[in-house]
């Protein structure tokens, strides 16, 4: 109805998150911005053709193409806590995981945009707490019994991780595993744990206490500071 006011995070504060959009049409940018409004977060989506000079951005969305490595490197250098949305086929996104991709979209469909924003808007709003899983797409290698496979994380915390593209049909709840995880910045961790959830192609792992888990907890804490 006319005159209705939708409350939004940041609507009455000095800072409204700014998102740099590289190579997207106005209609795609509008859908992206509207999806944030649907979760009550006011953002500013700014179209750009090159890395910003002298401007500050909280997030960026770009295509996983041949120009992506240089652009991602420049963005990460300017702001290591910048939230990165990457659009393209999952194999191409996986090859760029070392830059710390926070959300992967296989296309700019309404469903893909909504899912990506639901996973990241609290992080962008500064409302994540340290017990919360951080949305992050990085490659992992999981050893379970005599089997080893590679998957992509969807989110992780100091206590566990959710991964996609896992062979869930041969995994079982309570099974002991070892997760080899490479964090942005090339820090590699080897963490034991147990499978706590199996659903379709998604698997959840609860980490066991130990020095490697402590290192991960510190990384998550630093990321959320």
TrEMBL record:
Residue ranges constituting the PilZ domain according to the UniProt record: 128-216
Pfam family, one: PilZ
Protein name, UniProt field: PilZ domain-containing protein
Gene Ontology MF terms: cyclic-di-GMP binding
Gene3D superfamilies reported in the protein's UniProt record: predicted glycosyltransferase like domains
